[in-house]
Amino acid sequence: MMKLVSSKIAVVALVACVVPALAGEALAGGVTAAGLTAGGLEPAGVRNCTWCHGTSGQGYPVAPGLAAQRYQYIENQLVSFHQHTRDNPFSRQYMWGAAANLSPRRARDLSVYFASLPAKAANDGDRSVAAAGRALYEDGDPEANTVACAVCHGPNAEGIRQIPRLAGLSYFYLKRRLRQWGQGYHVAAEAPMPLVASRLTPYEIEALASYLSFVK
Amino acid sequence: MKGVTLRLAVLASLAFVLSPPVCADEADRGEAPQRGLHAKIEYCKICHGFSGQGYRGFIPIPRLAGQQTEYFENQLRAYAERRRENRYMYAVARTLSPATRSALAAHFRGLNAGPWGGAPRHLVAAGRRLYEEGAPETNVPACMACHGADAKGVDAIPRLAGQLPDYIANKLVNWGRERGQDSATPDPSAVMLPTSHNLTRSQIAAVAAYLSYQQ
Questions:
Q1: How many other C-beta atoms are found inside a 10 Å radius of the C-beta of residue A164?
Q2: Within an 8 Å CB–CB cutoff, is residue B20 touching chain A?
Q3: DSSP-based three-state secondary structure for B135
């Protein structure tokens, strides 16, 4: 199975290298910020990512949305895949290989590119528990020693610096990550998420993941 | 596929066993108050840092390590009574008994994390001068006079050494909007109000930078 995925990635990589040359643009060495904000130039190799993460980086339940994500966060994740610190099953199976040959320059360019794409909410949570999720997100539950997510992730779940945007991520992805941290899988970079997640009840995870999937 | 699943299961259990310890409430039923306090301390540290060093979240979350116990407890009371306004800390402080407040204060007093730093270095010299001499022409006293030459404070006067620079700046700029919010019950925070008004933004940035590097 891995062999099939690797050969697919190899084919895509070859195509991605050839197409820009055919178009007459030399994209070697990445893209300037001006090029990105002008809204068009894709960094070399982006098709390796959009294959799973969606053509506008909007994500699928298996591969999270990258559009409008904090670029430092994406970069940190790519480093952690390289170093094998982030170890949840899908990361291990897909992202360790995908990030294995990414140079720091290429990782930075891809991260900045996806960060510049417009956000698109997954809207795939359970609406009946979204209100409870919002209350938990904004105020936590001090009696139960549950922190307010907004303190770090921001009132609109947009994140800041290397702290990720959560707004609009897939309910399935968020639920999976929260449960994984509770099961002992590691974070990519320094973050208190395992401790936070291990205190959440299954209902709270449902509510939070649902609420966040609807936030624009 | 079966082999892969088994390997994944083994790896997952290893990951669980080898992951950093979480407060295992279930394991220790004999000491209810201790267990509660341990869980509460961990809870504080999720935001304030595992060594009490603070954290740059969406908002700057202050260092608590080495903080004066009297100041620490006063702030928790001020939050609970809404004399000091903060949406998150109000919710937290309301759940704390006086005994828990004291225990938390004592715990964080004993921590000794390194200074946060991170501020522009070129501001430090000016910040130091301001800290030690004040700005008499604009009625700004020397911070050192109350907060101490080592910026570690005393009694109800807080430690500033090693504090996040954007936290210090944030507080000084917003002093009147956040502190002393109950005009019927004036509190010691009033002493900083004139100073916070008289400091310019660049003076605030300088003194915050200086303090962020103090051990």
A1: 24
A2: yes
A3: strand
**pTM for this model (two decimals):** 0.82
Q: How far is B58 from chain A (nearest CA, A)?
A: 5
Q: Do A194 and B20 touch (CB under 8 A)?
A: yes
Query: Rg for chain B (alpha carbons), in Å?
Result: 21
Please tell me the distance from the alpha carbon of residue B133 to that of residue A169, in angstroms, as a whole number.
52
Residue A11 CA to residue B92 CA, distance in Å, equals 54
H runs (alpha helix) in chain B: 2-18, 32-48, 69-80, 87-94, 98-109, 124-133, 144-147, 165-173, 175-178, 193-198, 201-212
Chain A interface test: which of B10, B48, B53, B58 (most A C-beta within 10 Å)? B58
Residue A4's Cβ-count burial label (10 Å; 0-12, 13-18, 19+) is exposed
**Model ipTM value:** 0.82
Which residues lie closer than 8 Å to B64 by C-beta, 6 or more apart?
B44, B48, B49, B52, B54, B72, B108, B111
Q: What percent of chain B has pLDDT over 70?
A: 84
